Amino acid sequence: MTVDNQQLSVRNLLGIKDITKQDIELIFETADTFKNVLDRPIKKVPSLREVTIANIFFENSTRTRLSFELAEKRLSADVINFAASSSSVSKGETLIDTVKNILAMRVDMVVMRHPHPGAAVFLSKHIGAQIVNAGDGAHEHPTQALLDAYSIRERYSDVSGKRVVIVGDIMHSRVALSNILCLQKLGAEVMVCGPTTLVPKYIQSLGVRVEHNLRNALNWCDVANMLRIQLERQDIKYFPSLREYTMLYGLNKQILDSLNKEITIMHPGPINRGVEITSDVADGHQSVILDQVENGVAIRMAVLYLLAGQQ
To answer: Is the pTM higher than 0.85?
Structure first.
């Protein structure tokens, strides 16, 4: 399978900041082809039959890890799964030693999630295998941003000119930064909305609007991406209580129905139902949350396929 023999401008996918608009469009075109594959009775293609991919997760993950693993198996790659909690990392082994031991098994590509920002970039300078960043701390999560933008493109046929608000814990979210960079490269207008304590000071320097009133943000936007409150990353209290946060920034059916237009609702998951979003909104017809999950497999297939083509 080929897509006009085009190639990505990068050897690794470390962050959205490193790729071009043309790269993003190529990934989307390739994902279109793979979505057709996923609709067939036989959902596998032999594109990566000779490629070995290691999924190395130093942080807990369910959706991202399963999505990558399924994408790899749909491409017929050989897959190794590595969880740091059950490995020698817990005995003090360094990141480089861990990965070099895995690479000694002749691994071609590494998909890595790590709690520290920049871990994927650091590793790319020390090993020869290609690296896909599956999330590094509160820094970037490039494939999530790609699948989010792809889902908007699927809904509206184009991302350019769309107004997208990202609501919630902007400060601790790797999804927020990657989404902002990706959406801007594709010509969308971006706003962030949340409590003052959860919107970092530098955010306006990225050229995004800042709004602290949820209703104002929803009236402005075409798409609302509702983020989870990341309590596990918060070392201090950024708001009085979850109940108060929900009263001010939780999205429910009553608010949605009161708008003078229909907007599209997204969520990168996992959802805290009843906190940032209620069940009737998450499961309603304006939600594309399950489409995001489906699109995640096609986008990750596209990324792995295009990177492997450069070996």
So the answer is: yes
Which CATH number applies to 16-140+295-308: 3.40.50.2000, 3.40.50.1370, 3.30.70.1530, 3.20.20.80? Answer: 3.40.50.1370
Each residue's pLDDT expressed in tens, for the chain with a length of 311 residues: 445 568 999 999 999 999 999 999 999 999 999 999 999 999 999 999 999 999 999 888 889 999 999 999 999 999 999 877 655 555 566 778 888 888 888 899 999 999 899 999 998 998 889 999 999 988 999 999 999 999 999 999 999 999 999 999 998 888 999 999 999 999 999 999 999 989 998 999 999 999 999 999 999 999 999 998 865 444 445 565 788 889 999 999 999 999 999 999 999 988 989 999 999 999 999 999 999 999 999 999 999 999 999 86
Query: Cα separation of 164 and 174, whole Å?
Result: 17
| DSSP secondary structure letters along 145-170 | HHHHHHHHHHHHS--TT-EEEEES--
In this structure, the strands spanning 78-83 and 130-136 are unpaired
